[in-house]
């Protein structure tokens, strides 16, 4: 017995709060196994779709929580970054939050009441107001700041040298943008903002000007313009969205550039001030009722629908799409009252032949898998070509189903029911026999067989007024 398995005995302690005892021992064992491989509670919890705080509670109860001296440090993170790992890879390796990794990467140090930036500026939070201990103009950038590499989205010194050389040759801004792979608006803005009134645009002067402008915090435009702030507050009191306020400012103050602000700036000001007694006022002003941003997961960070890899419908062979070859099926569940009962429906794409799968107790992934294996195994081999399904959780065991039956499962795109239109139409016909809101568990396998025979005996216009049963019979006789 492994050490992790021994620790699981502590997790199963009946004296634990109920919220820690809801998950099955199998789920906990799966989490501990993944945690043993990754070394990160956050990454293991995210991979399995579990609550992070619950998983931390399991770890503490099992005695696996790291002491403070064992936790990853800034030095460990910078060592991985110097070894060539990206910020995301280093954060994953150490099991730290991406915000912590970003601050360590930028040299920001946290204190009890705020943050200290590399240029010496101290940001202090006090009753929801952002203050700086140094209100003087920012000092000239140091050599470390000038040479520090930043994100590739921004211009670097090498880019500015290219801009200077191409301007000296008389080339256009569009040609410069193509040469360094940037948008022409970025080049125009760079020349306009970082040129010297006397010497014009020079790369080193432009780079120093840009770096000196970079440190935070800065005075917000909304705070610096009382009139702008008053107009924004008036719009929020009328329940306008920040985007509506931003565009309305352009119409009402067409010649006043000080009365311009993007909707993103308004959102940042609102979310930043949502503390203390202001939180309720802002919550009432926002349509969503949120006083903080909702995390949006990027495509590279998004977790997959199932643990086992899926085959997308775009990879389905053309012979399935044109219904030329029989033996390719579409499937789905129809559910009863409060989604407590269900019946699995299968329809063959070329003959429209229907089979119904009895699910008497539940419609979990394991139950649906076993029901589909039992039903599809009754078919001859040449009628077991493929199965197309949506991305419902009931198909989490699709790989086990494919191994048992030899049938490939193709998954539709999210929110695209038309990609299995035959099955959707069949489910509509089945509602004549199984109305919505009824308990489907009361129907026996014989009842389901009777309904399937009813549908398979109906003449279909798309089949030249033949029935699905007749079409399937012809296929079996010619095989």
Please tell me about this protein's structure.
With 479 residues, the protein is α/β, with parallel strands linked by helices. It is 46% helix and 9% strand. It is built from 24 helices and ten strands. It has helices spanning 3-11, 18-21, 25-38, 41-48, 52-61, 74-82, 87-94, 98-106, 143-147, 157-168, 173-180, 184-194, 203-213, 221-224, 226-237, 242-252, 263-273, 278-285, 318-321, 365-376, 398-405, 421-430, 445-456, 468-478, and strands at 109-110, 114-116, 122-126, 129-132, 311-312, 328-335, 342-348, 354-359, 386-389, 408-411. Strands 5-10-9-6-7-8 form a six-stranded mixed sheet, sandwiched between helices. A four-stranded antiparallel sheet has the order 1-2-3-4, with no helix packed on it. Helix 6 (74-82) packs across helix 7. The two termini are 54 Å apart.
């Amino acid at each position: 017995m492994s050490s992790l398995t021994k620790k699981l005995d502590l997790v199963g302690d009946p004296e634990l709060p109920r919220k820690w005892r809801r998950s099955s021992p199998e789920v906990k064992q799966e989490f501990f196994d993944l945690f043993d491989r990754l070394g990160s509670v956050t990454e293991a919890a995210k991979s399995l779709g579990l609550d992070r705080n619950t998983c931390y509670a399991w770890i503490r109860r099992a005695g696996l929580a790291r002491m403070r001296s064992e936790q990853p440090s800034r030095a460990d993170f910078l060592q991985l970054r110097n070894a060539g790992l990206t910020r995301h890879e280093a954060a994953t390796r150490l099991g730290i939050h991406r915000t912590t990794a970003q601050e360590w990467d930028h040299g920001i140090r946290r204190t009890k009441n705020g943050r200290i930036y590399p240029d010496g500026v101290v940001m202090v939070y006090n009753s929801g107001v952002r203050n700086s201990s140094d209100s003087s103009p920012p000092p000239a950038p140091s050599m470390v700041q000038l040479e520090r590499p930043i994100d590739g989205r921004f211009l670097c010194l090498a880019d500015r040298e290219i801009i200077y050389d191409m301007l000296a040759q008389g080339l256009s801004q569009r040609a410069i943008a193509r040469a360094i792979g940037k948008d022409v608006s970025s080049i125009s803005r760079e020349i306009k903002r970082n040129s010297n009134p006397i010497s014009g645009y020079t790369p080193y002067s432009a780079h120093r000007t840009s770096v000196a402008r970079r440190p935070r915090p800065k005075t917000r435009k909304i705070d610096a313009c009382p009139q702008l702030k008053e107009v924004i507050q008036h719009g929020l009191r009328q329940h306008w969205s920040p985007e509506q306020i931003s565009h309305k400012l352009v119409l009402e103050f067409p010649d006043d550039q000080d009365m311009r602000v993007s909707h993103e700036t308004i959102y940042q000001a609102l979310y930043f001030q949502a503390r203390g007694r202001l939180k309720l006022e802002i919550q009432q002003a926002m349509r969503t009722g949120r006083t903080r941003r909702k995390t949006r997961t990027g495509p590279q960070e998004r977790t997959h629908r199932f643990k086992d890899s899926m085959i997308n419908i775009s990879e389905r062979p053309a012979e399935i799409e044109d219904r030329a070859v029989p033996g390719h099926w579409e499937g789905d569940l129809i559910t009863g009252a409060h989604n407590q009962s269900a019946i699995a429906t299968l329809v063959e794409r070329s003959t429209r032949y229907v089979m119904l799968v009895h699910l008497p107790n539940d419609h979990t992934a394991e139950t649906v898998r076993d029901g589909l294996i039992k039903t599809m195994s009754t078919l001859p081999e040449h009628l077991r070509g493929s199965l197309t399904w949506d991305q419902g959780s009931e198909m989490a065991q699709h790989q086990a189903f494919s191994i048992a039956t030899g049938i490939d499962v193709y998954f539709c795109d999210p929110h695209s029911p038309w990609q299995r239109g035959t099955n959707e139409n069949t489910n509509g016909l089945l509602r004549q026999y199984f109305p919505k809101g009824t308990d489907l568990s009361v129907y026996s396998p014989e009842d389901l067989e009777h309904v399937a025979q009813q549908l398979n005996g109906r003449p279909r216009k798309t089949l030249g007024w033949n029935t699905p049963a007749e079409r399937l019979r012809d296929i079996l006789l010619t095989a």
